[in-house]
TrEMBL record:
Domain of life: Bacteria
Example GO molecular function: oxidoreductase activity
SUPFAM superfamilies xref list: NAD(P)-linked oxidoreductase (SSF51430)
Residues forming coiled coils: none
NADP-dependent oxidoreductase domain mapped to chain residues: 16-308
InterPro entries per UniProt: Aldo-Keto_reductase, NAD(P)_OxRdtase_dom_sf, NADP_OxRdtase_dom
Record's protein name: Aryl-alcohol dehydrogenase-like predicted oxidoreductase
Renumbered residue ranges of the record's region Disordered: 313-333
Gene Ontology cellular-component annotations: cytoplasm
């Protein structure tokens, strides 16, 4: 598999990363054995970048990755960990904590759960409004000096925060939602990252399955599934969004690819500094996603895709309003 350096200073990673979030309840129940088999299949296929968060299943996701890596060459995996989101035993979300002492505590637990002596990329999941980004990055920079962390990343922050963070320590990559129907980063955030030599790890490239070609209006979701309350999946919006998927399906047919492969290949085609993270939690989904790497979209394909799914054509926001309101990346909406 092709590899790229993440930003000017980041690690070399596979052209596709595996996001493990869905293996820990964010999209309803997942099968543990299948999740581990999916991580193994990804590593065997040459995927090196594994993305997690300490709050995905309140540690469950890190322990799962730790188990999957047992007996494997740890250094062949690039483990990206997000921290800072606070939860309670019922799984409710309780804001963010990026205070220096909290970060040192979070990283100690993550290293234990993952069973590793360092984390490759460590990043705050969101901007903590009560802590200057300089303090957060400065604390992770100390962890880099101490050998517990190799690179520093960011997630869902806007241009000003990116610049302030990069002034403290080199930033390998910004993790942002980016897909055919989530193109908010194109105006200011992507150009800022490019100017500073920061890579992008793009999540939600299938808009959490909505534009995968497999989603149907009546697909059942569990109460704990993010999609149960995500605006784009709600009645009144989902119909419009699935029309866009059908428009994409006819283009996919012309390229002998699936809808999911076209959606992933479109993100990959936006630049070599952008690495799509796919949220496969089953081997068949992973195999389909890997097929996107063999798909090269021509200029004509890209034009046809833009016509089928014009920028801003999705119905509904990418997160519920209450969450968008706290996202630094959405500050200039
Ligand atoms: N930084 C952040 O704020 C943030 C936020 C969210 C996620 N992330 C990271 O990004 C990763 C990817 O995000 P995501 O899971 O929302 O992205 P996604 O790839 O857009 O959606 C994944 C979902 O799409 C469905 N799907 C259908 N066909 C698929 C295929 N061929 N390959 C993969 N999935 C397919 C699956 O649902 P079914 O299994 O139900 O079919 C899967 O759970 C996460 O795992 C997480 O590590 C980061």
């Amino acid at each position: 598999m092709k590899t790229y350096r993440l930003g000017k200073t980041g690690p070399e990673v596979s052209a596709l990363g595996l996001g493990c979030m869905g293996m820990s309840g964010m999209y309803g129940p997942a099968d543990r054995a299948e999740s581990i088999a999916t991580i193994h299949a990804a590593l065997d296929a040459g995927i090196t970048l594994l993305d997690t968060g300490d709050f995905y299943g309140m540690g469950h996701n890190e322990m799962l990755i730790g188990e999957a890596l047992k007996g494997r060459a740890r250094d062949r995996a690039i483990i990206s960990v997000k921290f800072g989101a606070l939860r309670d035993p019922a799984g409710n979300w309780n804001g963010y904590d990026s205070r220096p002492a909290a970060i040192r505590n979070f990283v100690a637990y993550s290293l234990q759960r993952l069973g590793v002596d360092h984390i490759d990329i460590y990043r705050p999941s969101r901007l903590d409004p009560n802590v200057p980004i300089e303090d957060t990055i400065g604390t992770i920079a100390d962890l880099v000096k101490q050998g517990y962390v190799r690179h520093i990343g960011l997630s869902e922050v806007g241009a000003e925060t990116i610049r302030r963070a990069a002034a403290v320590h080199p930033i390998s990559d910004l993790q942002m939602e980016y897909s055919l129907i989530s193109r908010g980063i194109e105006d200011e955030i992507l150009p800022t990252c490019r100017a500073l030599g920061i890579g992008i790890t793009a999540y939600g490239v299938l808009s959490r399955g909505l534009i995968s070609g497999h989603w149907q209006k009546d697909t059942a979701t569990a109460k704990s599934d993010f999609r149960t309350f995500s605006p784009r999946f709600q009645e009144g919006n989902v119909e419009r969004n699935l029309e866009l998927v059908e428009a994409l399906r006819s283009i996919a047919g012309n390229t002998s690819a699936t809808v999911a492969q076209v959606a992933i290949a479109w993100v990959a085609a936006q630049g070599q500094d952008i690495v799509p993270l796919v949220g496969a939690r089953r081997r068949d989904r992973l195999e389909e996603a890997l097929g996107a790497l063999a798909l090269t979209l021509s200029k004509d394909d890209l034009v046809a895709i833009e016509e089928a799914v014009p920028k801003g054509s999705a119905a509904g926001a990418r997160y519920p309003e209450a969450q968008l309101a706290h996202m630094d990346s959405e500050k200039n909406r």
